[in-house]
Amino acid sequence: MDIDEMHARLVAELRALRTEAGLTLRELSLKVHVSDSSLSRYFAGQALPPWEVVATLTDLGGGNHAEMRRLWDEAQRERRQSRWPAAGSPAEVVAAERRLGPVVGICALIAASGAVGWALGRR
């Protein structure tokens, strides 16, 4: 998994906050109210934590809320931009449509079969 620059910076800060808090992963999970496996993914950079988790870790580690919010916002922005093709890029839009075409068709088929099943059940 390729991690964006701001996400990597956020992860480094989260790890520093964890060290500063001096708590085990299990102890942190109880204070932050998320599983230790989720925290592990956040500290490894495998997932971007929700702001509430970042804010609580910032409190526990004595960090700067304004700076952590800025990093989190930037990481969120990078994440959104890396997921979707830029508007106005025809080649990327066509490629995305080709990937989604079969999915849309299957969803339509499932919806139609559900409607038929519902209609038949009403008889």
TrEMBL record:
Chain segments annotated as transmembrane: 100-120
SUPFAM superfamilies per record: lambda repressor-like DNA-binding domains
Designated name of the protein: Helix-turn-helix domain-containing protein
Keywords: Membrane, Transmembrane, Transmembrane helix
Organism: Paractinoplanes lichenicola
Chain segments annotated as coiled-coil in the UniProt record: none
UniProt superkingdom: Bacteria
Record-linked PROSITE patterns: HTH_CROC1
Residue intervals of the HTH cro/C1-type domain: 14-49
